[in-house]
Amino acid sequence: MLATPADNPFQEPRSARFTAWGNALLAGAASPDDAAAAVLGHDDSHRVTGLPGDADGELHALTWAMGRLRVMGVRGLRLALPAAGHPLGLTGPAAFNAAALAAGEAVLAVGAPIGFVPEVTEFGPAGDRSATVLWRCSAVGDGPPADVPSLDEAERELAEGLRRATVMLARLDVAGAGPEALRALEAYRRRGHDELLAPGYPPRAVRVLQSARQVGALLAIAADGHGAAVSASEMAARREVLVPLERTARRAQTAAYNALVDEERR
């Protein structure tokens, strides 16, 4: 069974963890063991295949692969969170973009023309699920990533996005949303979020990511069919607002995770 980030809007994408902790490793703020453990999270195992010079089917432990990044010429990592019609963070070629779009996420290296797409297989009974992840490395283009904003742009867009999301949810009668969705949102709001980024990231990136994740959580509830909007015209109006907000949240997440690479270049 393959999973994508859309399956759980409250869960940090694996490519985001890979980007953040890979950047911490490359900056000297984390060891390969610590970085790999953070990327692994609660998963059962992660393996990497397709690195430059690999034989077909050769697999590597995540710790070894992450420790090799600098040797391969990698100076940093960027997150891509593409969706249909929006190749956010991608640089080509078409085959890599298609794989990243299918997964909903990818990691692109800076300094070496390679990228990583996670292939996630979930297993186990409901309530006790785990996963194995195979990171497939392949060649990528060396052009600028598509549509990634600066932290400044992301923060401005999110301020307006949060206002619009709040108005929309009030209009849709969020009080009528299911208790499970509301409990999930409240638990999300109470969480500490510094752990979503790795050592070395600036506080502003954490702040932008917090806002982006809050927008995503609000949108998950609004898009779940709850609330008072029942007519076709009301549903169409809801989609008209939610689609650009979802794009804003993904753009901001990408800007936050890419801050260690992109902000020092601006």
Which short descriptors sum up this protein?
266 residues, alpha+beta, 6-stranded mixed sheet, 9 helices, 6 strands, 45% helix
Question: How would you characterize the overall build of this protein?
Answer:
By secondary structure, this protein is of the alpha+beta class. Helices cover 45% and strands 14% of the residues. The protein has helices at residues 14-26, 32-40, 62-67, 94-103, 151-171, 179-190, 203-222, 232-257, 259-262; strands at 45-49, 59-61, 76-80, 106-110, 114-123, 130-139. The protein has a 6-stranded mixed sheet with strand order 2-1-6-5-4-3, sandwiched between helices. Helix 1 runs antiparallel to helix 2, helix 6 packs antiparallel against helix 7 (203-222) and helix 7 (203-222) runs antiparallel to helix 8 (232-257). The mean pLDDT is 84.
Secondary structure topology:
Blueprint (H helix, E strand, L loop, with lengths): L13 H13 L5 H9 L4 E5 L9 E3 H6 L8 E5 L13 H10 L2 E5 L3 E10 L6 E10 L11 H21 L7 H12 L12 H20 L9 H26 L1 H4 L4
Parallel strand pairs: 1-6
Antiparallel strand pairs: 1-2, 3-4, 4-5, 5-6
Helix pairs in contact: 1-2, 5-7, 5-8, 6-7, 7-8
